[in-house]
Write a structure and sequence with these properties.
Strands 2-1-3-4-5 form a five-stranded parallel β-sheet, sandwiched between helices. β3, α4 and β4 form a beta-alpha-beta unit. It has five helices and five strands, in the order βααβαβαββα. The protein has a single domain, classed as 3-Layer(aba) Sandwich (Rossmann fold). 35% of the residues lie in helices and 20% in strands. The structure holds 1,3,4-trihydroxy-5-OXO-cyclohexanecarboxylic acid (DQA). The site of 1,3,4-trihydroxy-5-OXO-cyclohexanecarboxylic acid has 10 residues, from loops. Catalyzes a trans-dehydration via an enolate intermediate. It catalyses: 3-dehydroquinate = 3-dehydroshikimate + H2O.
């Protein structure tokens, strides 16, 4: 059976490639999306790749995923550290979710090491740049 996966990117990730390159690298979100789509095909998965700068829109996308996707991969950006609303949405839809970050959030400012999202996810992948999304797809393919 083909697995359906929704990849959600949060605020400021549309600026990848020009934003804090020393931390996030030079790959754009479009570059990452292309790699994710190619890898998903190889793994026999259907993937949709979206980005929003708005908390409510991200929550709507998570709600929309219910009954339509088998797994979610999410990089919630800065919402990672304080959005109880996104956490509650993930918990509510009961879809296996993997949290991804380009940077190693545990090796940066202290406020970034706390994720309010991680406890409702099956796991967290961080510190591998855009490859983290590919690792997350691989993790989801084993579910
Ligand atoms: C990020 C880490 C967050 O702390 C930050 O706010 C981001 C990007 C990452 O992918 O490394 O916007 O989620």
């Amino acid at each position: 059976m083909v697995k359906r996966v929704l990849v959600i990117n949060g605020p400021n990730l549309n600026l990848l490639g020009m934003r804090e390159k020393d931390i996030y690298g030079v790959e754009t979100l479009e570059d990452i999306a292309r790699r994710v789509v190619a890898e998903a095909e190889a793994l026999n998965m259907d993937v949709d790749f979206v980005q929003s700068n708005h908390e409510g829109e991200i929550i709507d996308k998570i709600h929309f995923a219910r009954g339509r996707y088998d797994a979610i991969i999410i990089n919630p950006g800065a919402y990672t550290h304080y959005s109880i609303a996104i956490r509650d949405a993930i918990k509510a839809v009961e879809i296996p979710t993997v949290e991804v970050h380009l940077s190693n959030i545990h090796a940066r400012e202290e406020f970034r090491s706390k994720s309010v999202i991680a406890p409702v996810c099956i796991g967290q992948i961080c510190g591998f740049g855009g490859n983290g999304y590919i690792l997350a797809l691989s993790a989801v393919s084993m579910l």
